[in-house]
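Thread: S-adenosylmethionine complex, take 2
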Amino acid sequence: MAAFDISHRQLRHSQRIDLDTGVRVPVVQADAEALPFAGGSFDVACSAYGALPFVADPLAVFREVRRVLRPGGRFVFSVSHPVRWAFPDDPGPRGLTSDRSYFDRTPYEERDERGALTYVEHHRTMADWVNLLAASGLTIAGLVEPEWPEGHERVWGGWSPLRGRHLPGTAIFTCVSF
Ligand SMILES: C[S@@+](CC[C@H](N)C(=O)[O-])C[C@H]1O[C@@H](n2cnc3c(N)ncnc32)[C@H](O)[C@@H]1O
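Output below.
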């Protein structure tokens, strides 16, 4: 087993969690577009809102995942549901009205006071994800769009029972490397 992230700081969080749980997860600092693992090393690969929305070339990531998986190995990953892109992240009624095109691939960017880029998140439509996976040679085995849980009343960031009952927040893909 191995876990990785491009951010050293994020790996420090992982090590802190290891101390709390008593479970040690080996970590390595690495770029998802160039994994430091031999081909066919893993049965399963997972990414929860990981590198994929933040890289300019997600196809390179999918190809790398395919390379390090054994034949029959599975890749499960989650991303923000593409539909969210077209709606403002507002838990109230404003969050139910589309204010930009679902098809607009302009990345979301944040800059510091000197104009230097500090955060970039790319938008891909559902068809983009499906076609990127197809191009990588990974086969989609399933797609889950979790629904707002019954009785869950918490408001968190842009999410609320009002908005969560209307819009999907997450897309979870399961893929197989044959
Ligand atoms: C939204 S966070 C999710 C982190 C973690 N999966 C979680 O659920 O807490 C996205 C993570 O992707 C990492 N990341 C961004 N680009 C990356 C890349 N090219 N290779 C590896 N990790 C990357 C960031 O450093 C960040 O830790």
